[in-house]
Design brief:
The protein is 60% helix and 14% strand. By secondary structure, the protein is α+β, with helices and mostly antiparallel strands.
């Protein structure tokens, strides 16, 4: 994380969780104000990461389904509910932070195996 100055305004440069470099404006003209912004950003980022580490898949799915009811059709919401239930059955109630490509591939492979007409003996 570092500060850079372009055209009289300071920008905060940082790496996202995916390793992509991001840049946001501090909207500050002085280094002192930009450093205050940087400290505040670090604190908020740390709090956000802690909250994500504590959030379980079941909490996320409940929150998403509440949101889905307001913007999607009942059939779409029911489909999401079914997929979330199956995902949790197969992978367990994992912390959101630990769900990655491996868990999704495990889920898809298990579902394919369960529904396949041609199971290997």
């Amino acid at each position: 994380m570092y500060l850079s100055k372009r055209k009289g305004t300071f920008y905060l440069c940082y790496q996202s969780e995916l390793g992509i470099e991001r840049r946001i404006s501090t909207k500050c003209k002085t280094r002192r104000d930009a450093q205050i912004f940087l400290r505040s950003f670090k604190e908020k980022d740390h709090e956000r990461k802690l909250a994500l580490q504590c959030k379980l898949f079941s909490d996320f799915s409940n929150d998403f389904l509440l949101y889905s009811k307001t913007v999607h059709t009942p059939n779409t919401t029911a489909s999401y509910r079914s997929v979330f239930r199956e995902f949790e059955r197969i992978t367990g109630n994992l912390p959101l932070q630990s769900i990655g490509v491996r868990e999704v591939e495990k889920f898809l492979a298990k579902k394919k195996d369960e529904t396949s007409d041609w199971k290997s003996f």
